[in-house]
Design goal:
Length: about 375
């Protein structure tokens, strides 16, 4: 804390001393400080300034790594505190800086001096082909530069940032990655052709209404479908599932998969067929529990099934087709009946000396009786 107080005092004393010194600039641009000009230390270096401070103050100042240095020998001048040595400090004036290779002070231009030479603080003397503008040297091009170009060096124009020469003395904008399906109208800015849309990546992509699900929009209004999908007939902007075997009585909801309509069911081949409980004998199912009969059959409203049509009633049998009688078990068709509508009882072993009156049942003629000695036989033997 005590050290901080000492340094603060030294700093304030130096400032007060500097303000008290009445400086006079020399013809070389340097300032001489002192009580009068006879007490100053002359210098031939341009841009040097002098200031005298008490020696004790310089000792403290020198410990702060200042670039100022004393001029020897140290003269002794009267001071308010008595006779004590004074130190004349020398440093570059404002607007000058040390030359790195010598002790000379050279003029400094804050913004540099491209195309010229810094001859005074923030003063550039321009070389031929350059002209001063706002304190700096700028190249001169006798002919105006083309649009989107600027004068880079004397009589030389180059394209601005974001533009490139087209080889015909014109500057054109640059769009990284090109501008396929569009035009590059400004740096990094594409304008798409009709049928194309600009993406966040500054690319022009084709447009398809609906977004092209199950496919890719490869041209304006054209969807290229993924495997298993096709364009609907007469359309190019949509993709629908494809079933190679078709999808009769149903809807193809995914590649190769039919979803049957209500009242339909899928058969073993994967087709959608009508569903009829109990099936459709002598016909085929055309809808939910709706049969359509084959030729020679009619639909029985009571059962919903198909029955045969016979011109003559079937005796001991059933009409199973157009004028076709199917005999019941134990009966056979009477071949002697021209209408082929009569079924007679069948006795496989025949009925010698009798008549077959029922399935495997004989009635013996008068004077004959059934032979009971052989089980299962229908034979008539003479009565004794």
């Amino acid at each position: 804390m005590q050290r901080l107080i000492v340094w603060s005092f030294v700093f304030l004393t130096l400032v007060a001393s500097a303000l008290a010194v009445q400086g006079v600039k020399t013809s070389g641009g340097r300032k001489i400080g002192g009580i009068n000009s006879a007490n100053s230390v002359a210098s031939n270096n341009t841009g040097l300034c002098y200031m005298r401070v008490p020696y004790s103050h310089w000792v403290a100042l020198n410990g702060t790594n200042t670039t100022s240095r004393p001029v020897s020998p140290l003269p002794r001048y009267p001071s308010p505190q008595g006779n004590q040595p004074w130190v004349t400090l020398v440093d570059c004036c404002e607007g000058f800086v040390r030359n790195g290779t010598s002790d000379n002070c050279i003029a400094h231009c804050d913004r540099g001096c491209e195309g010229g030479r810094c001859t005074g603080p923030n003063i550039c003397s321009c070389e031929p082909g350059w002209a001063a503008e706002n304190g700096v040297c700028k190249p001169v091009c006798s002919r105006p530069c083309r649009p989107h170009a600027y004068c880079f060096s004397p009589e030389q124009c180059i394209c601005q940032l974001g533009y490139i020469s087209d080889g015909n003395d014109q500057c054109i904008p640059v769009c990284p990655g090109g501008c396929t399906n569009g035009d590059c109208i400004a740096p990094r800015t594409c304008r798409c052709k009709p049928g194309y849309t600009l993406t966040d990546l500054n690319q022009c992509v084709p447009t398809c209404e609906g977004g092209c699900p199950h496919g890719e929009c490869t041209a304006p209004g054209v969807c290229t479908c993924y495997t298993g999908y096709v364009n609907p007939p007469g359309e190019t902007e949509a993709c629908i599932a494809h079933c190679p075997n078709g999808c009769l009585n149903g809807e193809c909801t995914s590649p190769g998969v039919c979803t049957c309509r209500p009242g339909m069911t899928r058969d073993t081949s994967g087709r959608c067929v009508a569903e009829c409980e109990g099936g459709c004998p002598n016909g085929y199912c055309v809808g939910h529990n709706r049969c359509e009969c084959n030729s020679g059959f009619v639909l029985n409203p009571a059962t919903g099934k198909c029955s045969g049509t016979c011109q003559y009633p079937c005796l001991n049998g059933e009409c199973t087709g157009a004028n076709v009688c199917t005999c019941k078990q134990g009966y056979v068709l009477d071949t002697s009946d021209p209408t082929r509508s009569r079924c007679i009882a069948s006795c496989p072993g025949g009925c010698p000396n009798g008549v077959c009156s029922g399935p495997n049942f004989c009635i013996c003629n008068p004077g004959y009786i059934k032979d009971r000695s052989v089980k299962g036989r229908q034979r008539c033997v003479p009565r004794h």
